[in-house]
Structure formats: structure tokens, C-alpha cells
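Open question from group meeting: does this chain pack into something compact, or does most of it stay loose? Before anyone orders reagents, we agreed to write out a predicted structure and look at it together. Recording both the input and the output here so the notebook holds the full record.
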Amino acid sequence: MVINGDNMERYIEIERSIVKKFRKPIWNKFIAAIKEYNLIEKNDCIAVCISGGKDSMLMAKCLERLQGYSEIPFTVKYIVLNSGYNEKNLELIKKNCQILNISPQIFEANIFNYVKSQGGSPCYLCARMRRGNLYKFAQSLGCNKIALGHHFDDAIETTFMSMLYSAEIKTMMPKLHSTNFENMQLIRPLYMVREKDIISWQKYNNLEFIGCACPLSEEYQNKNNEKTSKRQEIKELIAKLEADNDKVPINIFMSVHNVNLDTIIGYRRGDKSQVHTFLEDY
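C-alpha cells returned:
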């Protein structure tokens, strides 16, 4: 994409802010996650999945800059899945891509309407269908990885949610193999970046991104008399704990990197029927 002179100065400033003003909270942590979890390897072709929100847009800019300076050769392709956005949101996505000098390929899969027809909680089914469509389209482009914009706070919220609502300790992995698309992987380059720093970057550059574009989640909450989503409840809980002890978020994050198996009652790998308990080695 070629941007005109009126937008060039703003584009340069937005890109510069990532490695200047926000170098420590964003760029350094982005690079740390890439290295710590070996997210990018030689000759990778990565489909950068842009949802239109602040997280995926920042991720796209970070990967674009890294590609230009990395000693490890890799390519990126920017993709947008139009899963049923209204015209206003779709136009905002296109506008922001132009501002950020990103040229995505937009493809359609009307997921929202299908999920609505199924009833029940829409989020799980929607997420699965979106991911499947992203994998499929990325693979058709010759990519071997898709990159999603989940961040540090998404990771620790997922850990808490699984404990409180699913009775298991389950994390959001920084990378994983696809079970349905051969030789495809998913990576999360913003895994160590705090959401509050992404918001600060957005505000500093006076950028407006779409929020939750799903027309179903609010409708579902109203129907079931839910004031907020479970994830929002967990987000607020962690914020309260952090107000008393600012180490709480990083302690949650590090706890799943530092599991003491000698004190675990039971665990499993893969199939839920394959459960092991501490009594096996007692």
C-alpha cells in the first residue's frame, strides 16, 4: 500500500512510537516472547490475522518492523476475516490499515449468522469457526503459521477462568500445533505485552479501533440476565487483586511456567480419560 504525503508523517510517528516511547513495555516484550518461545523460525510464512481491534493492529505493526530488521528470514501476509462485520466496522478496519500502511487480504465467512442459528453461548463456537477459517485461508496462501493478537492479560485471565469455571488448570499457550490443519501452527507474539500498554499506545497515537464487533454476545448476555461476560468478571477480579499487590499479574503468569509437580494432586495429557494422580508414585 502506498500512502500519500498527508498521512506519511503520521504513519512514521506511529511506527516510531513502538520502538521509541513504548520500547520497554511493548517492543522489548514482543521481542522477548519471540525469543523465549521460539515463535518465528527461518523461512516461516506467517499469516498475520487482523480482527480490527487494537491488539491485532499493534501485532501487525510489530511483525512488519521485525521482518525488516530480523536476522531470521521470514515473510508475512496480512489477512482479515470478515465474519459478518457491519459496514461501519469493516470500513474502520480498512481505514486503520491505510493509516498503518498495511495491505491485508480480506475474505468472507458469515460466521455470526451461523452461530446465531445454533443458539446457546456464542463465543466458543464463534472462536472455533473463526480459527478454522483463518487456518484454511492462511494455508491456501502458502503460510505455515497464523499469528493472533492475544496478550499477557488474555493469558492470565484464561488461567483464572479455567480454574474457577472449568475445574482445571489450563493455559493459553504462546504457540501450538493445529490439530486439523497439517503442518500449521498458531503463535501469539504479544504474549508478554500488557493490555494497558497497548491501550496507552493507541491513545498516544490517537487511533480508533473496533471493540467487540460481535452482534451476538451482548444479545446473549441480555437474554440470560448477565451484566458482564465471565472474562470481564475475571478481568475485574485481577484488577482488584493488583490494586493491593502489583505483583499479582506477573505471579499468575509465572506460576504456570513454574509448576511444582511434587505438589500436584492429579494431571493429564491429552485424553481426559488418561488421568494420573500423585498416588501412582506415593
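Observations to bring back to the group:
The longest strand covers residues 74-82.
The mean pLDDT is 89.
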